[in-house]
Structure formats: structure tokens, C-alpha cells
Amino acid sequence: MNKTDLYIYNTLKRKKELFEPLTEGRVGMYVCGPTVYGDAHLGHARPAITFDIIFRYLQFLGYKVRYVRNITDVGHLENDADEGEDKIAKKARLEELEPMEVAQYYTKRYLDAMDALNVLRPSIQPTASGHIIEQIEIVKRILDEGYAYVSNGSVYFDVVKYQRDTNKYGILSNRVIEDMIATTRELDGQGEKHNPADFALWKKASPEHIMRWRSEWSEGFPGWHLECTAMSQKYLGEQFDIHGGGLDLLFPHHESEIAQSVCAFHTEPARYWIHNNMITINGQKMGKSLGNFITLEEIFKGDHSALQQAYSPMTIRFFILQAHYRSTLDFSNEALQAAEKGLKKMFEAFDNIKRIKTGDKTSIELDLMSKATEAMNDDFNTPVVIAHLFEAVRNINLLLDGSESITEADLQRFGDDFSTILQTILGLCEQESGNEQNVVNGLMNLILDIRSQARAAKDWNTSDKLRDELSSLGITIKDGKDGVTWSRD
Amino acid sequence: MNKTDLYIYNTLKRKKELFEPLTEGRVGMYVCGPTVYGDAHLGHARPAITFDIIFRYLQFLGYKVRYVRNITDVGHLENDADEGEDKIAKKARLEELEPMEVAQYYTKRYLDAMDALNVLRPSIQPTASGHIIEQIEIVKRILDEGYAYVSNGSVYFDVVKYQRDTNKYGILSNRVIEDMIATTRELDGQGEKHNPADFALWKKASPEHIMRWRSEWSEGFPGWHLECTAMSQKYLGEQFDIHGGGLDLLFPHHESEIAQSVCAFHTEPARYWIHNNMITINGQKMGKSLGNFITLEEIFKGDHSALQQAYSPMTIRFFILQAHYRSTLDFSNEALQAAEKGLKKMFEAFDNIKRIKTGDKTSIELDLMSKATEAMNDDFNTPVVIAHLFEAVRNINLLLDGSESITEADLQRFGDDFSTILQTILGLCEQESGNEQNVVNGLMNLILDIRSQARAAKDWNTSDKLRDELSSLGITIKDGKDGVTWSRD
Fold first, then answer.
1. Rounded to whole angstroms, how far apart are CA atoms B235 and A420?
2. Other Cβ atoms within 10 Å of A282 Cβ, number
3. Mean per-residue pLDDT for A282-298?
4. Do B439 and A213 touch (CB under 8 A)?
5. Strand order from edge to edge, sheet including A284-285
6. pLDDT at position B325
7. How far apart are CA A297 and CA A303, in angstroms?
């Protein structure tokens, strides 16, 4: 198998397929990003890390990737239905803030949390509110093509006509249209639709709705599904390589995106659809009412009653990568503590590579990189990659205690491979500040050892000098019954 | 004088005026932000810090401030004129990138640099490309009012008619319209205008122009002056309190903003116009061709031939605050080194406050806060505030050596005031990472001292033990001709 023979599970085809980009050497990838009306929680970490891994691996394979992840700052309605109150506008009124102020506040907090998780920034992060004109253009196209109708100032996509002409509604989610009609709840404004399965392309704003733009149909706002069609087409073209998102977006969101593209551009938007599976917490679905809704900030600080301790961003990242992205994943203190230990072991071994003494022959296998790429090429199988890294950790320990041997050239290659897989492909890194803190702790232990030796030898000069010099660095030492403690100002 | 009696130099009136907000307790402030087609340089630091100080001080006075600073990601034309090539689109074509990818890349780098300078994020940072529909609305209004005309698919503002009807073109910049016509260069497309002083509200895109949107006049893009009118009105209202920017934007940009608002909304947009003055480098204007164009990243790293060393973000911030925002400011190594020393002295004194021994009477004046607010209320006079802080530094040193005395309650108040002025109002802080580095450096000096004493005493045991333990912390020491050096892995 060629290094670049990457197989991806394509939700659209319900099987793994060889990845072949539309344009040689380049990949266009669109992923549904966050709705920014609250703090990023565990449910945001998984898709962000899943598609970060895919972004990283495609680049590792040599592709030039344009990765677009949108920010939904308008139009995502409560109850995930077409009617109801715009989530962001509601929050804004509660806080007496401009909706955009709320959206930008939470966008920054989302990006800060993603930075902490070492998730690379996408190439473009377009906002829904910043692409109203592009969305209106697509509404016009779909109207021109006859697959939408105006009703009381709003515009609806005609699912029944689309289904009759193309037989495509359900192509992605595998649902049948009769079920869709049956599962659509009765909500205010339903009467405007010809059929309950129809979805809004443009909604006339109610008088209290703050976020609104003028259009030829009404002052209103675009339907939620439309922004992804508009922004993916604008930045990646009418057809592009990969569309990703959480499994919860499969229907109606992604199914509707396909319908919109087929009617507006006469093509399905993406060739490969990738969906990450959901997370649970102690076996339960996460939800505000269940008391297990944990924000990433709370996790990083250990500030939630369900948490026994704080978990670092890298522990969360490592934990998520220990499961395949298409499996469900259950968060529990036990599982996170195990991940924390595993990650620590991994980085200790990584640090120890430089302490390995080389010999004149190599007794271990040097197939770490080929095993890792084989696993990644099999639909980004990160748990298998991690298992191979742990095998390498065992080898490192055997090399350290002399049970195995390695030549200098092979050690160089082995170390480079380990580093590339750990840091470049999986995006795991030792957290800066923690590292700095470790060095300070280590140096302080060393100095306090010297000081107690001096005191044992009744060398008060040295002992006092150390105390004074530490004090000038803002470090206070205190001799107590149980030994010496120190603190910083 | 009341604590809240703030006087602001209003460029519009050419004098200092008592600040009175339109809505009690609230302030709306709009500031022209960066064009994101390259790295942030010294010229970006000054306006960002100037309006950060104003944002901070208004909040200190108890105002709830909505601070909007735009990001120009489209439509800012080369030569600061209406014609020419869009700067961002040009860069994108050179790098074979989507213009939005370039814009978002440099936006992130700009914000990172501003974060380093401890510049608070504005409440809203809207992008020009995200407000095309709002800009088109204003073009329509101005056309409807009769102050614009369509010419070959573009729309121009009719300066001559506006001047005839309102006599306002020049109200801010104090220019007379005949001069404006005389200073307008002849450029491609000039022939479309009725008068050379007219400016574009909407430009028809040339075939090679990438960033374009459909409008009733042409596929094109908005004129540069329009975005600020559209975004300030959207987020702050048709009239708001403060409009800020660099003095270089006074004409034609701000003058044209006023003209647009007067025609579209029948009001001048802002009641107070604040302009920061320009910077020079070693007495020269900064420019790429002069070889003195220094990015903030280069300054922070000391990575430019004109720099004798790196200067920390806080040194830059402190240096900028040492001049009043309406004075010109010259950067030189000498001046920055002096600022670095002054800032160090300031923070040393701040740290020493907690080491002051209190007594039963107070012999120093406790008017630091009233002096600082008096200076800030006089058009944000930060150099005077800093002078008062240095007076306080002298007092701290006198209190430390016992020449002056202070009670515990007064020391508490004095320390709180010093901290509020230094950190909350001026936004100066000790830099985390630099600080951590300093501690590591200090501890290493201590350990290397002990080691050389051990070696001098031929105590090889201690010397070797220290070397080994440092090595386990990832620190390598090396004995050379000129002494001991150390490095980290």
C-alpha cells in the first residue's frame, strides 16, 4: 500500500473508500463549527480534535489543505427547528447586550479553549452573519430553479418537490421522507409551509427579533442550513472534497445542505462526508438538566461537582484520541485519570529517548512510522496509532536498561518518528507552563538539598545566603516541623 | 472637580470639552482598526494602546462601554485612493491563497500582538467583508437622498453637491474643498467621477478582482470609507459618543464618514472625535523603503537590524504611554532602553510595597489616586500619571529605608491605589513568561555559584552531583574558557 493510500469512511456511501482529491495535491475541507451562545463544553472538543487530526494528517501526507470551519453567530434556532427564538438573540436580550457582542465574546472563549487543546486554527473561520448576501444569492437561485416558495415573507425549501424530482432527500441520513414528515413537530409558523418537512431558507423576523437584514422577501434572517452551503461554496467551490461534522448534524442539517447544493448548483457539495460520534458522561447523554453539562474551562480547572480533579487540555486530547472518532466515547473520572497516567508515561519515555546509549547493532523493530501511517490510512485510526506508540515506549525502556540495543543512526530515526507521530500527527505536546513549573520545582529541590546539607554541617553562612538570594527572586522558604516548604509571592 | 468630569480634546471642535455621554452611564466608541494584509507593526501599537487606555479609563469611571473596532479585510485600496488594486486581493494572488485566508491569518497575528501588549479586546470587532449588505443599504440611502450618482457600474459620493448644501466637507479636517480637488491625484477610473474630489461608495470590480459581491449597480465591492459608517451605525446607532483613529485617517477617511452619515442618517456620526498622533523611528517616518519598517514581532524578538536588543511588549506599552497620545513619538534604542529601566524600577517598587514596615503615623501624602485621575481627566494625560507613579516609587523607597512612615490602613490604601493605576488604568503588568524565565535564570545563577565554590574547594562530589541533577531536569552545563554556560533541551 502506498503511503498516501488513505481510506476514509464515507457516510454518504456507508463504507470506507480510497480518498482521491478533486484537485491533485490539494484538499478542500468544510466542517460545521460551533454556535457561539455559550462556553465550549466537552461536546465541542470531540469534533474539533477529530477534524484537527484529519487536517494534520492530510498535511502530513503532503496535501495543501484549505480547511474552513464556520462560526454560527445567527440563525440557529432553539429546538433545532425552523421556528422558535434565535438562541443568540435571546441571550443578548437577557444580558442587555448587542447579539454580536455576545457572539464575539464566546467566539474568543471557544478559540482559547481550542488553542489550549492544541487544535490548529482552520484556514478560514467564516461567520454566518458575515455572509448574508451570499445566502440571499442562494435563496434566489433555489427559487429560480423552482425548489422553494415564498410564504408570508419567509422562503421555504420544497422538500416534497425535490424528493419527487431527484429522489435524494435521505441520501446521506438514509431516512425516508415519510418518517421525516412524521417526526416533524408542530410549531408556530408551521402553517406557512406547504409540507411539514419543508425547511426555511429565509425567515421573516418577528418584531422582537434583533438580528435581521433586509431582503426582497422581508426583513429577516437566513435559515440555519443555508450558511454552510453559502460559505463552503464561497471558499471551496460548488463541489469540494470533505464535509465533516458531528453525527447529530447528519439530519436535518447535512441532508438539507445536500438538497440546497443540488438545487442551487446541480451538484452534491462534498464527495466524502465524515461524522464523528457522540460523547456521554458516566454513561449518560450530556445535558444542562442532567447536571453533567461540563464546560472545557471547568474541566481544565477541576471546577465541577462531577470532577474529582482538574484534567489538563492534553489529557482531554489524549483521551479523545484513544477512541476511534466513529465510536461513542464515555467520559468518567476513572477513564480520564487513566489517560492522564498514560500520557505522562508517553512523555516520560519521549524525554528519555535522548538518554539511550547507542551501540553497534539494532535489536528492535524500526517499523513505528509505517505502522502508524497504516493505522492512520485506515480511516484515521488513532487508538491503533497510540497502541503502537506504547509499544515504542516499551522499547525505549528496554533500550534504557540495556535489554535491547540500537545504533546511533537508528536511534535518530526512531526518535524522529516518535516525535512526528506524537507531536505532528497526534498534536500532543507537553504543556509549556507545566513544564516551566517542573523546572522551577526541580531547581528548588536541588537548592533546598544543598541548604539542608549546609545546615547539617552548621554552615550558617551558606544557609543564610541561599535564603536571602531566594528571597530576592520572590521565593520565601520556611523551616517547619515536617521539613522545609517554599512559596512564591 | 468631580471624579467623573472628564475633558476630551475633540478634533471636531479643536478644543477640550467636558465629556457628556448621549445615554447616562453608557458610552459607545468606534475606532478604526487594522487593514489585515500584513504583520502588525509599530504604527499599529499606538492607536491600539491609546484607545485601550480610553476604554479602560471610561470603564474605571463606571461607564458601561461598547467599544467597536473594525477589521478592514476588503476594499482598502492601494495608494489610499479609490482606484488601484485591493491590497488584500493582491497579496492573495501572489501567494495563491483565498483572500479571506490571508485576512484571517493576519487578523490572528494582529490580535496575538495586541494581546501581548495587554490591549483589551474591543466588545465587537466587525469585519468589512461581513457587512456588505449593510454597506449596500447605505449606498441606497445616499442615492435616494440625491448625494450620490451611478457611473459605469460604480457609485460615487457627490462631494460638490454635499458641500453646496451643507458646507460641511472639511468640518473635521479643516480643509477647504478647493485644496481637496487640487491634491487629488489623477488615477485610472477618474473619468467616471463628476469631480475629482468625489469618492467611491461602490466600485465595479475589474475582471481580475477576486473579492466581489453582486449589487444592483455591478458585481463589485464597497468603497473604503463606507464600512466604518455601516458598522458604527449598526452596532452603536446613527449617532454615538466617540470616534477614534490615527491622525492619518482624519482626511479623507473620517471627513468622508461624516459626509456619509449626514446624507444617510441626517446626523454627524460621533460627538467626540479623538485622534492619536503618529510615530517616527529615529526621527524618520516609518516606511518599507526606508528600511525602518519594524513589525511588533521583530521588536519583541529583537530581530531587526535597527534594534540593539529585544524589547518586551510591556516596554513598548510603557514607552507609548510616556508620551501624550496627541504628541508625536519617536522610537529609538536609547528611548526604549530608558523605558525598559523605568518600567523595571516601577515594578520593583510595586513588589516592594509588601515589604514596607508600617508604623503608627503616616508622613507621606496619600493623594496618588486623586492626582492620577486629575491627569486622566485632562484628556487622558498618561505621562503625568506616570510621573505621579514615579513620585510614589520615591515614597516607597523612603518608606522602605525608614525615612518616611505609614500606618497599616494607609499602606493598604496606598498599595491599592498604586495597583489600580498601574494595572487597571494603564494596563501595565509583569509578563508571565518573562517572569518565569527570570526565576529560572535566578535559580540557575545560584546553583552555578554553589558549584564553582565546590570546584574551587575541589569538592568534585558536589560538583558532579549538581551537573547530573541539572541534566535530569533537561539542563546541560558547559565549562568553557569564559566561565560556565548552560542550555535547556
1. 46
2. 14
3. 84
4. no
5. A284-285, A279-281, A329-331
6. 98
7. 8
> Is the Cβ of B135 closer than 8 Å to some Cβ of chain A?
no
Size of interface A-B (CB pairs under 8 A): 101
Q: How does residue A158 score in pLDDT terms, banded at 50, 70 and 90?
A: very high
What's the longest Cα–Cα distance across chain B? 93
Asked whether the beta carbons of residue A433 and residue B436 sit closer than 8 angstroms, the reply is yes
Q: Are strands A148-151 and A154-157 parallel, antiparallel or unpaired?
A: antiparallel
Q: Is A180 part of the contact surface with chain B (CB cutoff 8 Å)? A: no
The CATH number that domain B7-276 falls under is: 3.40.50.620
Q: Are strands B475-480 and A279-281 parallel, antiparallel or unpaired?
A: unpaired
DSSP codes of every residue in A385-430: HHHHHHHHHHHHHHHHTTSS---HHHHHHHHHHHHIIIIIIS----
Which residue does chain A place closest to B129, by CA atoms?
A130
For A170, the grid coordinates are 435521505
pLDDT above 50: residue B80: no
Burial class (CB in 10 A: 0-12, 13-18, 19+), B69: buried
The alpha carbon of residue A256 is apart from the nearest alpha carbon of chain B, in Å, by 24
Candidate CATH numbers 1.10.730.10, 1.10.12.10, 3.40.50.300, 1.10.10.10; the one for domain A281-425:
1.10.730.10
Alpha carbon distances (Å) from B81 to A115, A270, B190, B214: 38, 41, 11, 22
Strand stretches in A205-251, DSSP E: 213-214, 219-222, 240-246
Answer yes or no: do A447 and B443 touch at CB < 8 A. yes
Which amino acid is residue B111, in one-letter code?
Answer: L
Q: What is the pLDDT of residues B111-151, one digit of tens each?
A: 999 999 999 999 999 999 999 999 999 999 999 999 999 99
Q: Which amino acid is at A381?
A: N
Supply the pTM of this predicted model. 0.85
The residues spanned by each domain of chain A are 7-276, 281-425, 440-488
The one-letter code for the residue type at B412 is Q
- The neighbour count for residue B328, using CB atoms within 10 Å, is 10
H-type alpha helices, B266-381: 296-301, 313-321, 333-352, 368-377
Considering B162-171, B255-264, B460-469, the range whose residues carry the highest mean pLDDT is B255-264
DSSP state for residue B254 in the 8-state scheme:
I
Instruction: Give the number of other Cβ atoms within 10 Å of residue A59's Cβ.
Output: 16
Return residues 268-327 of A near B (CB < 8 Å): none
Ranges of H-type helices in B356-431: 368-377, 382-400, 408-419
Start-end of H helices in B24-146: 42-60, 87-95, 99-116, 132-145
* SS3 category, B412: helix
Contacts of B214 in chain A (CB under 8 A): 133, 137
Question: Chain A residues with CB inside 8 Å of B106's CB?
Answer: none
